[in-house]
From TrEMBL:
A GO CC term assigned to this protein in UniProt: plasma membrane
Domain ABC transmembrane type-1: residue ranges: 64-254
PROSITE patterns: ABC_TM1
Protein name: Spermidine/putrescine transport system permease protein
GO biological process, any: transmembrane transport
Family recorded in the similarity comment: Belongs to the binding-protein-dependent transport system permease family. CysTW subfamily.
Sorted UniProt keywords: Cell membrane, Membrane, Transmembrane, Transmembrane helix, Transport
Family annotation (Gene3D superfamilies): MetI-like
InterPro entries named in the record: Bact_Polyamine_Transport, MetI-like, MetI-like_sf
Length: 265
């Protein structure tokens, strides 16, 4: 009996797990073709009009533009600062190194509600107007931690002898960094940047506390959900999923090609 069930157990549970993960995405994609009219809660017929005019719903593209602008700025800030912190924590030893390593995880371990409320209190206490600027500051705070964690693993895996060899060949520390260290870190930095962008783009809780009257795409979805998310929002969500999927596939293809080239040498 065990022999009969055993070979099927993993594929069945694996298939159910994938089905569980993909059902919400399939729902969003299917209802992006819904001829919704005033509400998108029930299926009313197939149409391509939503894909032809994804900005057809009021304020949806404005919210998307705000999210893209904020996520792009946050990604740049978090990637630069997070990479520098990761290199500093791994390559240099200083008095509070262990404490700094522990503190960098605090934003990841703290509930978003607590972070959002505490940041809002600080902004109000110092008289800062809520808006795009406060969202960028809030997102940068927790995205830096994600970048540090991702890049630290890459820095720790590098062999310091490579930089020592560059120094033996009369490369200055800056030349050794840009010509040896940075290219080797680049895959980890790119992965960390994509993670920071996704975390910032998707965030709702901290944004809701610190955004004032500015609408981001997650805020727009939350407000619209009470009366049925417009089909145009489903179009944008589906497009984001397809773009992310293409990036992952492209990265995997490039990684495989690079592995084959290295194996052929």
């Amino acid at each position: 009996m065990r022999r009969r069930i055993g070979p099927w157990l993993v594929p069945v549970f694996g298939g159910l797990a994938f089905l569980f993960l993909l059902v919400p995405i399939a729902y969003v994609f299917a209802f992006s073709f819904n001829d919704a009219g005033r509400t998108n809660l029930t299926w009313r017929g197939f149409t391509l009009d939503n894909w032809r005019n994804p900005c057809g719903a009021p304020a949806v593209c404005e919210a998307l533009a705000n999210s893209l602008q904020i996520s792009s700025v946050v990604t740049i800030i978090a990637t630069i600062l997070g990479t520098a912190i990761a290199i500093g924590l791994v390559r240099y030893r200083f008095k509070f190194n262990a404490t700094a390593n522990m503190l960098i995880f605090l934003p990841l371990a703290t509930p978003e509600v607590v972070l959002g409320a505490s940041l809002l209190a600080q902004f109000l206490n110092i008289g800062v107007d809520l808006g795009v600027g406060t969202i960028i500051i809030a997102h940068s705070m927790f995205c830096i931690s994600f970048v540090v964690v991702a890049v630290k693993a890459r820095v720790a895996s590098l062999d310091p002898k490579l930089e020592e060899a560059a120094a033996d060949l009369y490369a200055s520390p800056i030349q050794a960094f840009w010509r040896v260290t940075f290219p080797l870190l680049l895959p980890g930095i790119v992965a960390a940047a994509l993670l920071a962008f996704a975390m910032s783009f998707d965030d709702f809780i901290i944004t809701n506390f610190n955004s004032g009257n500015v609408d981001t795409f997650p805020k727009f979805i939350y407000v619209a959900a009470t009366r049925g998310i417009p089909a145009q929002a489903n179009v944008i969500g589906s497009a984001m999923f397809i773009i992310a999927l293409l990036i992952v596939i492209g990265g995997q293809i490039l990684s495989n090609r690079r592995a084959k080239l290295l194996a052929a040498r």
